[in-house]
Amino acid sequence: MEIWQKAAKENTKKYANFLKRCDQRKIIKELPELHEEVFSKIDCLDCANCCKNHSPRFKIPDIKRIAKFLSMKEGDFIQTYLKLDDENDYVLKQQPCSFLGSDNYCSIYDVRPSDCARYPYTDEDVLLKRTALTLKNTEVCPAVYAMLEKLTQLF
Question: Residue 7's CB: how many other CB atoms inside 10 A?
Fold first, then answer.
C-alpha cells in the first residue's frame, strides 16, 4: 500500500465530515483551478489504479462508439467484454481493464467511456455530492486524495 493510500484510509472520517459540512457553492468555484494544480503534479500513467481496480459504466453511446472503433458489432462487444452489474449497468467482465496496456496506456483512449473521461471527477460537483464515491476514490486515486487534502486545508 502506498503512503497516500494509508493516509487516505486514516483520514476517511475527516474527509467525510468535511464533505458533509462544507460550503459546496464556494468550493465548486475553486475545483477547476485546484484540479489543474493537482494534475500538474500527478501523471495518471504512473498509476492507472482506476483501470486496474474499477470498471466504468458503459452506456449505450459508449458501447456504440467503442464497438465501431474496434470494428465489432455492438452485441459482440457486449458479449466479449461486458456484463450487467447489480444496478443493471454494463461494466467490464474483468479487472484490470481489457483495454489497459502494460505501459498503463489505454488502447481505446480516444473513444473511452464517458465515466473514464470524467474520472476522478475532481473538477466536478460529483466530488462533493457523491460522498461515498469520493471517499472510495481517495484510496484508489492519488489525485482525489490530494484534492481532499488541499480542500480540507483551504476551507
Answer: 13
